[in-house]
Design goal:
The protein is α/β, with parallel strands linked by helices. It has helices spanning about 45-55, 125-145, 165-175, 190-195, 205, 225-235, 260-265, 280-290, 295-300, 310-315, and strands spanning about 5-10, 20-25, 35-45, 70-75, 85-90, 105-110, 115, 155, 180-185, 200, 220-225, 235-245, 265-270, 300-305, 325-330. It has 2 domains: about 5-115 and about 300-330, Alpha-Beta Complex (Quinone Oxidoreductase, Chain A, domain 1), CATH 3.90.180.10; about 130-270, Rossmann fold (3-Layer(aba) Sandwich). It binds NADPH dihydro-nicotinamide-adenine-dinucleotide phosphate.
Length: about 325
């Protein structure tokens, strides 16, 4: 008898109506790739929520096994880069969008997308970080490359209770930055302070249309929100500062003027996690293992099982998930 394994499959009918089912697959069903992986852990990112709910066109190949992040053990490899038994990690590269992804107990992938499991992290911890946390690290590295350091001044983090925001706060505070957290959930202030936020501001201060330039308030920012929020944090960035932009939780528009760029020399740093080259990924994950307090990661992370993925995906799109979610695929 052929071995089967469970998976979440997102399908579309002729009228393009989306449905989500838990199905049994065999290895023969998997897409092409040179490495087959037994998936041990995954996560639910905002993007996975969009894929499962169909709220945004994340899925571009039908049907699709969603899930953009995974950790697992290689069960078969036709690539010299990996051997059976190797522990590997994957973020992005269109997995869960155009190639079947993490929400199955097995995945067949390209060796080019995989990196060795970072030392010092368990599968559940690494998926507690996931694409959201790895993107937070990329944002911090982008600020550093732009010359920002703790002595330069405070850093504002938007979407503070979300995955990118909460990990960014934890990393920045461990590195010694004064972190200003912007949130729409002030009731979670204690949580944000425990992560290392020194100040908390209401996101309403930043989310409405603002002036082209405002009073200088911070040396830099990590923005997961976009739209007026990003425009306002740039307009309130100190002379010579920099803002790393990675998200669009408020919107993908950017209604602002060039004034902060041409009068204050502020830099806007675009951060993409999906197509980062392998060396940068390995560097970012090495930095995560070193610069993220694992106790804080534990405080941010909720561990769920396979059966809770679909419900959590809906909750994350509704803004009801705090911090990060790690999925134990063996449960
Ligand atoms: P989460 O859903 O975990 O967090 C987003 C946070 O943004 C929420 O928790 C909330 O924080 C805030 N927020 C939500 N809606 C609004 C709104 N309308 N206005 C202002 N703030 C809002 O998502 P992630 O942290 O995983 O991802 C954040 C963003 O980054 C997403 O847009 C995602 O697509 C993007 N992203 C981009 C990547 C890239 O490669 N560039 C990689 C990973 C993520 P609070 O309640 O504290 O206000």
């Amino acid at each position: 008898m052929t071995d089967t394994f469970k998976a979440i499959l997102v399908s579309r009918d002729e009228e393009k109506k989306q449905s989500v089912d838990v199905v049994q697959l065999t290895e023969a069903d998997l897409m092409e790739g040179d490495v087959t992986v037994d998936v041990e852990a995954t996560t639910v990112n905002y993007k996975d929520g969009l894929a499962i709910t169909g709220k945004s066109p994340v899925v571009r190949h039908w049907p699709m096994v969603p899930g953009i992040d995974l950790v697992g053990t290689v069960s078969k490899s036709d690539s010299p880069a990996f051997s059976k038994g190797d522990k590997v990690l994957l973020n992005g590269f269109g997995v869960g969008e155009t190639h079947w992804g993490a929400y199955a107990q097995k995945a067949r992938l390209s060796a080019n997308w995989l990196i060795p499991m970072p030392k010092g992290l368990t599968p559940i911890q690494a998926m507690g970080v996931g694409t959201a946390g790895y993107t937070a690290m990329l944002c911090v590295m982008a600020l550093e490359d732009a010359g920002i350091e703790p002595s330069t001044g405070p850093i504002v983090v938007t979407g503070a209770n979300g995955g990118v925001g909460s990990v960014a706060i934890a990393i920045l505070s461990k590195l010694g930055y004064h972190v200003i957290a912007s949130t729409g959930r002030p009731e979670e202030s204690e949580f944000l302070t425990s992560l290392g936020a020194s100040e908390i501001i209401d996101r309403k201060e930043l989310s409405e249309p603002g002036r082209p330039m405002g009073k200088e308030r911070w040396a830099g920012g990590v923005d997961a929100v976009g739209s007026h929020t990003l425009a306002n944090i740039i307009a309130q960035t100190n002379y010579g500062g920099a803002v790393a932009a990675c998200g669009l939780a408020q919107g993908f528009d950017l209604p602002m003027t060039v004034m902060p760029f041409i009068l204050r020399g502020v830099s806007l740093l675009g951060v993409d996690s999906v197509m980062q080259p392998k060396e940068k990924r390995i560097e970012a994950w090495g930095r995560i293992a070193k610069d993220l307090d694992l106790k804080k990661l534990e405080a941010i992370t909720t561990v769920i099982g396979f059966d809770n993925i679909i419900e959590t995906a809906t909750n994350i799109v509704d803004g009801k998930v705090r911090g990060r979610v790690s999925v134990d695929m063996t449960k």
